[in-house]
Amino acid sequence: MAERKFTGKHALAVFVAAFGVIIAVNLVLAYSAVKTFPGLEVKNSYVASQEFNDRLQEHQALGWDIRAELSGGLLILHITDQTGTPVEVVELQAVVGRATHVKEDFTPDFIFDGTAYATPASLGKGNWNIRLIAKDHSGAEFAQRVPLYVKG
Questions:
Q1: Cα 75 off chain centre by
Q2: pLDDT digit string (tens) for 42-58?
């Protein structure tokens, strides 16, 4: 039986195959990242950074605390002031969705029942984000991302 030698052609083939796998994996991951990217959060990040402190002061002045829960087929938002009293806002806009993609995003129609805001919702197991903007009677705007974990 003739003994096979490891030649330069064999080394080249191993080298090309190894880098071919690395490049293929990188291309698949890059494609997946671009395909699932939901888009820009802000049009101009510099302008958003300049307005950050003003928005932060406005939030802190309101002193609101926001908590979300899923109970009995209802998505419930508790908005309370510094004393724990429920807050009725003038305007409430929200988008509920996963943190990783926009396929399941929806815009709920919350109704204030005197203690909290509620809307019917069927959320699957896992992490959800509620991106909300609420305005008080003076026009002050409160924007926050409220995380919600739904257990199986």
A1: 17
A2: 778 888 788 888 888 87
